[in-house]
């Protein structure tokens, strides 16, 4: 059942996200971050619902596909089976991502979610390629394509409704918990609904006297799954390579730092994704005339404000003295000052 942290990246227009950046899915007015334990609990509950739905769909679609002779319905059932496997991968990732930092993992285990996205992307790509290969083989022998039974159409319609309802439920939870992994899973459920729609159209065509449409529908499902797998895996790989947070999130963190009393400016603000959280480091400029202790207190206050208002796991601050008010806030790098040098 998947989808993260990638995507312009939806399976088809109207059925997938225009992209997977957090601002498209998370309400801007919900600034208070949820803890790793809260997100893991929500992910577990949400995924168990998906397990139940996908188990029922796998059994129903495969059995009905075999009975009715619909390759498209069997392909959709295998797709549901891959979703079921994906659900258990998500449960595994959610369990481990809520663990705190330890000696071997000083930044915590949040990237288990990103790793799960990568694994699920590879799984979807493999399943999609297999579906595509099977459909192409069937199309090579059109005379062997049989007329399907009407029961295939009713099962396809039921699967479409079930997957759309699952999508709406999962996306609501993902937005509330601000979890990119759950957002990914939700949009994958929507892509599943799209594939069921395609299968339904193929079955209707078969019943109308065009039997070749059923394996064509199976081929389209394979292409959709392959595309989604590539998109999810690619996005997760970028996050594992320390991709920065989106521009909107970085700007919000910058503003929170600048609004902290005593902060005269900031520079060299850098961020990187850590699962659904962010790790940041920044140079904070304070009045050169204050004591070291006062500068430290300002840095601590700035850090605490960021942690309280944003999905930030940790902030590393470096205090720089400002003795030249002619250098604008946040423009140290543009002014030609190398990182770490004293402003003068």
UniProtKB/TrEMBL annotation:
Transmembrane helix found in the keyword field: yes
Molecular functions per Gene Ontology: monoatomic cation transmembrane transporter activity
Domain of life: Bacteria
Transmembrane segments: 115-136, 148-171, 192-210, 216-233
Annotated ranges, domain Cation efflux protein cytoplasmic: 246-321
Domain named Cation efflux protein transmembrane: residues: 48-241
Primary residence: membrane
Gene3D superfamilies the UniProt entry points to: Cation efflux protein transmembrane domain, Cation efflux protein, cytoplasmic domain
Keywords: Membrane, Transmembrane, Transmembrane helix, Transport
Keyword Transmembrane helix among record annotations: yes
Gene Ontology CC annotation, any one: membrane
Membrane topology (UniProt): Multi-pass membrane protein
Location of this chain's protein in the cell: Membrane
Protein family (similarity comment): Belongs to the cation diffusion facilitator (CDF) transporter (TC 2.A.4) family.
Name assigned to this protein: Cation diffusion facilitator family transporter
Organism expressing this protein natively: Trinickia caryophylli
């Amino acid at each position: 059942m998947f989808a993260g942290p990638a995507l312009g990246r939806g399976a088809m227009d109207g059925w997938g996200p225009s992209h997977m950046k957090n601002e498209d899915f998370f309400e801007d007015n919900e600034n208070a971050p949820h803890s790793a334990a809260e997100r893991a609990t929500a992910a577990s509950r949400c995924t168990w619902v998906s397990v139940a739905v996908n188990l029922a769909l796998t059994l129903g679609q495969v059995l009905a596909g075999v009975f009715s002779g619909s390759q498209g319905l069997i392909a959709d059932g295998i797709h549901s089976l891959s979703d079921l496997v994906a659900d258990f991968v998500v449960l595994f990732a959610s369990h481990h991502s809520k663990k705190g930092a330890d000696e071997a993992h000083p930044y915590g285990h949040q990237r288990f979610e990103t790793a799960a996205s990568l694994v699920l992307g590879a799984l979807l790509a493999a399943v999609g390629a297999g579906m595509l290969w099977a459909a192409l083989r069937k199309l090579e022998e059109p005379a062997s394509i049989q007329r399907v039974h009407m029961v295939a159409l009713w099962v396809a319609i039921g699967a479409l409704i079930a997957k759309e309802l699952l999508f709406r439920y999962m996306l609501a939870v993902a937005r509330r918990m601000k979890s990119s992994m759950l957002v990914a899973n939700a949009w994958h459920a929507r892509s599943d609904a799209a594939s069921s729609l395609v299968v339904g159209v193929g079955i209707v065509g078969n019943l109308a006297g065009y039997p070749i449409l059923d394996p064509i529908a199976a081929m389209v499902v394979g292409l959709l799954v392959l595309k989604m797998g590539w998109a999810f895996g690619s996005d997760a790989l970028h996050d594992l390579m320390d991709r920065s947070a989106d521009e909107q999130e970085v700007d919000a963190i910058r503003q929170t730092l600048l609004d902290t009393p005593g902060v005269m400016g900031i520079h060299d603000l850098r961020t990187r994704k850590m699962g659904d959280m962010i790790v940041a480091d920044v140079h904070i400029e304070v009045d050169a005339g204050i004591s070291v202790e006062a500068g430290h207190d300002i840095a601590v206050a700035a850090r605490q404000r960021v942690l309280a208002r944003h999905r930030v796991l940790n902030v590393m601050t470096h205090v720089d003295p400002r003795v030249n008010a002619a250098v604008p806030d946040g423009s140290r790098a543009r002014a030609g000052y190398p990182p770490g040098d004293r402003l003068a």
